[in-house]
């Protein structure tokens, strides 16, 4: 993070703008809207600035910049068309410990001016740290179109009731939950949008009466790795959570989307390593929910596809804990799409089967005869350590040794790796990648070279040649 974003209070604070041209006008108006006492210095000035001075809204000094001008001011903006003058202003301000912004040369100053979405008292600032101001402006324009105008009045109304809510709900967690519940229902916002301010106030008071923060669990699919693949609802719940219990397969980038002061608990399971047993995870879900916490159980992929989500919900039901389920993009769909491998295709596969590479101890194994059928795609989850067994059983069940296979490692992530070859080479291929990885078996894999669109991947020829060298 190159800059720490802050909002500073400038009401009645002296601020200096050096420069009185077109660029300076925009900054002057921002300072005036913030209530600052603005002094503008320039040899020449735009008529609009002179008019503001005549109206008594700012002080205008029609002269060259002098070092004494920065004495006692809170903030300085260098907005002249002279690089040398701007640099001089920045040097003088820095020497006196005064924050300074240099227009068009942000690296010379100590702060940058962001693009602003103003729904006062709600303010949203967007900055590219000076690297791409046009992009920051475009993002601001998108937000302007998304955020309704009544966000400002809603924010102001919430501020009026902060102390009332604080008096009735002593715990910060309970207060946060109250506001989240109130805002998410949208009833108060709807009343404000209709101009019914008094009814909106009554709605807040009636919602506060008897409010208690109940614990609940959201079983959320985090997708295969790319954080942009999570659903909007998943993001909302991650931003509201008190506790997040996450799996090993949840990417670091996805975890960064969780509310910053939420507690993160790693309950992941990783092949060949010590990990939290499922029973302990179930106990933690119950424990946190009974303590009144808003819990998100964040699982890689989809929680109901080899994610043991059903087992965890059975535990919650037994303890009468409310829950909801948010599906996610399962690894088979996400990884195959990012590898350019369609799971079904009219010319190659009319069905697709998802298979786990790890069965419960003493549990029944898969029906290999059904998995070996032609014109079918088989996707093996967590099958890397079982590649020898998969290869042997499929071939023995009748699947051709020349059947195309692919292993997608770290699918949908920037370091995704895809290696393709034949079923007879699966064991050797599995030694070329690192978990987490997905194994895809079927004729559709032959389309990978043609349809690949994301990241770097080895083609069938490269894989085959590396296997020959290994042999």
From TrEMBL:
Coiled coil regions, renumbered to chain: none
Active site: 247 (proton acceptor), 269 (proton donor)
Example GO BP: siroheme biosynthetic process
Signal peptide, first to last residue: none
Region (Precorrin-2 dehydrogenase / sirohydrochlorin ferrochelatase): 1-204
Keyword Transmembrane: no
Positions of region (Uroporphyrinogen-III C-methyltransferase): 215-471
Entry GO MF terms: NAD binding; precorrin-2 dehydrogenase activity; sirohydrochlorin ferrochelatase activity; uroporphyrin-III C-methyltransferase activity
Pathway this chain belongs to: Porphyrin-containing compound metabolism; siroheme biosynthesis; sirohydrochlorin from precorrin-2: step 1/1; Porphyrin-containing compound metabolism; siroheme biosynthesis; siroheme from sirohydrochlorin: step 1/1; Cofactor biosynthesis; adenosylcobalamin biosynthesis; precorrin-2 from uroporphyrinogen III: step 1/1; Porphyrin-containing compound metabolism; siroheme biosynthesis; precorrin-2 from uroporphyrinogen III: step 1/1
Siroheme synthase central domain segment(s): 121-144
Residues that bind S-adenosyl-L-methionine: 224, 300-302, 305, 330-331, 382, 411
EC number: 2.1.1.107, 1.3.1.76, 4.99.1.4
Residues covered by the Tetrapyrrole methylase domain: 217-426
Binding site for NAD(+): 22-23, 43-44
SUPFAM superfamilies, alphabetized: NAD(P)-binding Rossmann-fold domains, Siroheme synthase middle domains-like, Tetrapyrrole methylase
Alphabetically ordered keywords of this record: Cobalamin biosynthesis, Lyase, Methyltransferase, Multifunctional enzyme, NAD, Oxidoreductase, Phosphoprotein, Porphyrin biosynthesis, S-adenosyl-L-methionine, Transferase
Domain Sirohaem synthase dimerisation: 150-206
Annotated catalysed reactions: uroporphyrinogen III + 2 S-adenosyl-L-methionine = precorrin-2 + 2 S-adenosyl-L-homocysteine + H(+); precorrin-2 + NAD(+) = sirohydrochlorin + NADH + 2 H(+); siroheme + 2 H(+) = sirohydrochlorin + Fe(2+)
Residues where Phosphoserine is found: 128
HAMAP family: Siroheme_synth
NCBIfam families: cobA_cysG_Cterm (TIGR01469), cysG_Nterm (TIGR01470), PRK06136.1 (NF004790), PRK10637.1 (NF007922)
Family as reported in the entry's similarity comment: In the C-terminal section; belongs to the precorrin methyltransferase family. In the N-terminal section; belongs to the precorrin-2 dehydrogenase / sirohydrochlorin ferrochelatase family.
Alphabetized PANTHER family for the sequence: SIROHEME SYNTHASE, SIROHEME SYNTHASE-RELATED
Role summary: Then it catalyzes the NAD-dependent ring dehydrogenation of precorrin-2 to yield sirohydrochlorin. Finally, it catalyzes the ferrochelation of sirohydrochlorin to yield siroheme.
Protein name: Siroheme synthase
UniProt organism field: Motilimonas pumila
